[in-house]
Write a sequence for this structure.
C-alpha cells in the first residue's frame, strides 16, 4: 500500500511539473534569434500570434506543434494562410500538414532530446511545411 501511495505521489508531481512548464511556456512565449512568430487566422479574420521554433530542412521551412496546447496549429489547419515574422520581416505562407515519408524523415532528423519530451509529457509532434505564397 505504501508503494502505491509513493507511486501516486510521483505521478501527481510529474503531471504538475508538466502542467506548470507548459503553462509558463505558453504564457511567457520566450523569443530569441532562433524563434519566429507565426500568426494564424480564424474564419472571421481574427489573428493569434505564437512564438515557435522553426525547423529548416534544406530549402524548406517547417514548424511543429511540440506541446499539448496547440490552438495555433489547429487554426493553421483550418485556415492555412499564415504569416511569419522572423528577424523583423513578415512573410505570408501557406501551412501544409506534413504526412508520410516526409513526416517520418523530419521526426527522425529533427528529434527532440529525451529530457524535453519528458518535461513536456511526451506529446505527439505534428509538422507543418510553410510554403511561400
Amino acid at each position: 500500500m505504501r508503494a502505491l501511495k509513493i507511486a501516486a505521489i510521483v505521478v501527481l508531481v510529474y503531471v504538475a511539473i508538466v502542467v506548470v512548464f507548459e503553462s509558463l511556456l505558453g504564457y511567457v512565449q520566450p523569443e530569441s534569434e532562433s524563434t519566429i512568430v507565426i500568426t494564424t487566422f480564424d474564419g472571421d479574420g481574427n489573428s493569434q500570434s505564437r512564438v515557435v521554433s522553426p525547423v529548416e530542412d534544406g530549402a524548406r521551412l517547417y514548424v511543429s506543434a511540440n506541446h499539448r496546447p496547440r490552438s495555433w496549429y489547429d487554426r493553421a489547419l483550418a485556415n492555412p494562410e499564415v504569416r511569419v515574422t522572423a528577424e523583423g520581416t513578415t512573410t505570408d505562407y501557406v501551412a501544409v500538414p506534413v504526412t508520410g515519408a516526409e513526416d517520418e524523415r523530419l521526426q527522425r532528423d529533427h528529434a527532440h532530446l529525451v529530457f524535453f519530451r519528458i518535461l513536456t509529457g511526451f506529446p505527439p509532434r505534428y509538422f507543418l511545411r510553410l510554403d511561400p505564397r
